[in-house]
Structures are given as C-alpha cells and as structure tokens.
Amino acid sequence: MKILPRLKIAHLQPKYPLIQGGMAIRVSTGKLAGSVAREGGIGLIAGSGMELDELSMNHLAIPRIKKIIRESTLKESKSMLKRALSFNTASEVRSYVQKYMARRFPEDFKTED
Fold first, then answer.
1. β-pairing, 42-43 with 46-47?
2. What share of the chain is helix, strand, coil (3-state, %, to 5)?
3. Model pTM score
4. Is residue 74 domain-shared with residue 43, that is, in the same domain?
5. Residue 75, pLDDT above cutoff 80
6. DSSP states along 4-41
7. Pairing between strand 46-47 and 27-28?
C-alpha cells in the first residue's frame, strides 16, 4: 500500500487529508464545512445560484456586503489572506479580520474599544 505525503497548506496541516467541497454546483455552506473541519479535514464554502435562505447571514446585511465587495480590491484581499494564513488558530484569524474590517470600513463595523 502506497503511503501518501501529509497534506500541508501554508503552515497548516489537517489531521486528515480530506477536502470537502464540490464544484459549487448549488451550495456548500458553513454548516457542512464546519462539520468537516471539526473532524480534522478541510471544509470549503462555495456556491452558485444560492437562495437567500441558504446564506449564513441576515438578508438585511446583503447591501452592506455588496458595498464592501465593490470597495475592496484584489490586491488588498490577497494581502489580507496572506496575513490571515500566518495565524495558528481560528480565534487569531477572527480577531485580525474584525480589527482589519473595523479600520477599513469603520461605518460598517462599529467596535466597542
């Protein structure tokens, strides 16, 4: 039996070399991706033709999210992703993203500092 090398993405190494995700035919949301990640695999969120009830956000947030996407550049998104991948835990990534978004879009992300 052939032994495969360990899967490694940046400095992260999942417990199991399992990547859940399709070709975004319909939807794969956070519920499934989170379940896979909690078991040690890699869960992906993807979608095409998503209905509003499949989003993991309130429908009232959609105009704000569209505004943020329109005002973001690919260069800044790549930079943010590179920095996020340097962290070791989800809580570190969440903290970084929350602080970044509050600085970048202060009118949309109010903080209680």
1. unpaired
2. 45, 10, 45
3. 0.51
4. no
5. yes
6. PPPP-BTTB--SS--EE--S-SSEE-HHHHHHHHHTTS
7. antiparallel
Q: How many CB atoms lie within 10 A of CB 28?
A: 20
Contact in structure between 43 and 21 (CB atoms under 8 Å): yes
Residues 11 and 49 in one domain: yes
Q: Residue 64 has what pLDDT?
A: 87
Domain that holds residue 73: 57-107
Rounded Cα distance, 19 and 43, in Å: 6
Structural domain contains residue 2 = no
Question: Tens digits of per-residue pLDDT, 19-61?
Answer: 666 555 555 566 677 777 777 777 776 665 666 566 566 778 8
CA–CA separation, 99 and 81 (whole Å) = 14
Other Cβ atoms within 10 Å of 10 Cβ, number:
11
Q: Which residue has the tokens 């209680």?
A: 112
Q: What CA dihedral angle connects 111, 56, 15 and 85, to 10 degrees?
A: -40
